[in-house]
């Protein structure tokens, strides 16, 4: 119910601006009250007649001055100036019906968190086939070159991707319809086109992702032999916050936690944009997918390497989506507050 309460002795009072105005507002005590009582009644009538909440609207007034504010007159009944702050303090308005809280919708989706309580979509994780750089045994994670032809699929990588596309078809991933979200990295987008072709998906259902699915930046390891990446994973097993050494050529040096932030942002978008759909995530490397899968099922990020994806590998996301041969030896593997798994 809307309740408006005010002090009639203060509401219609204005502070004189010069001495000459004082004489114009001299009123006897009874005459002043009668005049303002009439104004109060007119105000009530106006509010009730124009407000749809009129049956629930109550307006009350006090004929006596507000008790906490001294109100004095001189012998000639001249009303003394009142501070504006006192005037505001004399008005009390409670508009509770406009802010009545509603019970939350049981189906409402809030901020996406890892591990999620539930997923509104079906997800398939796919690592693109071998790239040209990988075929040469060279680490290439600089995003500047991600759309270069040299970052595309090798001949072997194309065959691996075709096998992945038919595997998705056998899993009926795109039965009905599906969305394909590849990284804009050349090899990942090429893989998405192959998957779409085999599964009868039109290009309008391919949604390129421009940053959240970039290959993990390995900093100073850029351009080195692929075998040297084992040093990065050795650091990951100590703490997910350790970054590779930096480099000044524009290649990021990302920790596991950095990758986790990116893939969580991606999942937040997907869970908000779609509902009840099938989404195929195509990554240019393994680390995006291992960190994402670890986050989804609540696994310790220090062991994300145990979930590694080989080029062209496909996995359906559920609590049992970790292949048996990739199960960790230790049973102490849960991470209830990712990425804080130290």
Q: How would you portray this structure in words?
A:
By secondary structure, this protein is α/β, with parallel strands linked by helices. It folds into two domains: 3-99, no CATH class; 122-326, Phosphoglycerate mutase-like (Rossmann fold, 3-Layer(aba) Sandwich). It is 31% helix and 9% strand. It contains ten helices and seven strands. A four-stranded mixed sheet has the order 5-6-4-7, with helices on one face. Strands 2-1-3 form a three-stranded mixed sheet. The model is unreliable at 1-15, 21-29, 56-66, 68-73, 92-101 and 103-107 (pLDDT under 50). Pfam families: His_Phos_1. This is Phosphoglycerate mutase family protein. InterPro entries: His_Pase_superF_clade-1, His_PPase_superfam. It comes from Vitis rotundifolia.
Q: Name the structural class.
A: alpha/beta
Query: What is the subunit arrangement here?
Result: single chain
Spatial order of the strands in the main sheet?
Answer: 5-6-4-7
Q: CATH homologous superfamily name of the largest domain?
A: Phosphoglycerate mutase-like
- Spell out the helices and strands N to C: EHHHEHEEHHEHHHEHE
CATH topology of the largest domain: Rossmann fold
Beta fraction: 5-15%
What spatial form do the alpha-carbon principal axes imply? globular
Average pLDDT taken over every residue: 78
Would you count the extended β strands for me? 7
CATH architecture classification of the largest domain: 3-Layer(aba) Sandwich
Structural domain count? 2
> If you compute it from the alpha carbons, what radius of gyration comes out, rounded to the nearest whole angstrom?
35 Å
Q: Compute the number of helices.
A: 10
CATH class categorisation of the largest domain = Alpha Beta
Runs in which pLDDT lies below 50 for 5 or more consecutive residues are 1-15, 21-29, 56-66, 68-73, 92-101, 103-107
Query: Helical content, roughly?
Result: 25-40%
Largest sheet: 4 strands, mixed
